[in-house]
Specification:
By secondary structure, the protein is α/β, with parallel strands linked by helices. The chain is built from eight helices and seven strands; from the N terminus they run H-E-H-E-E-E-H-H-E-H-H-E-H-E-H. The longest helix is centred in the first third of the chain and has 24 residues.
Length: 235
Amino acid sequence: MPSDQQNRTDLDYAVDIVLCVDATLSMKPTLDNVKHSALSFPGRLVQEMATKGRGIRSLRLKVIAFRDFGDRAEDALVESQFLRIPAQVDEFERTVSALGPDGGGDAPESGLEALAVAMHSDWETGLDRRRHVIVMFTDAPAHRLGDPRQTRARTYPQSVPGSLDELFALWGHAQNRGSLMENSAKRLLIFAPEEYPWADIADDWNNTLFFPSTAGEGLEEWEMDEIIATIASSL
């Protein structure tokens, strides 16, 4: 085996992925597709990585389901712990299967709050090669951070900043070592309509990919394939 090919097979990664899923009523027609794709996600990612001669030493998945803090505070955001795959794949499948479309209130949802909570995750710091990936699935715009209709909810996360600019500061510029997430490891994939704030984030934030979708259509199967290919290619 040529030395360069041998070196490729020696690339082992610690990969943490947070799936932020819009679970409001508007997602009902396609939430089953989201759930089905997410359930097949771990095996498909490992297979795609293997075709590139790259192994995953540590794979952890986490799910954040979000709705609208201004509509119903009790389940506006539901967060799992990181689940280690394959050891906890059954728990991951139960977590995803339990997602059900409900609530939502007005058109914008609490997607930015979900993104902020995802950024504060307990990311893996071991191994020399790491990827910390956040994937956002939504068919709606987001409420602006700091909106009192959201922040006064009793379950509103204290870690969420008060504006999009402050959230960007936590994400950090390419050369900013003081950011919340490790710059070389972080990746953000957004599947959302071209509405506030998703297109703005795609334009301004580094290490971010935006896949525009039509409002109300949710996640299609080809998009999950795109997610898997994008993550595997970025390692």
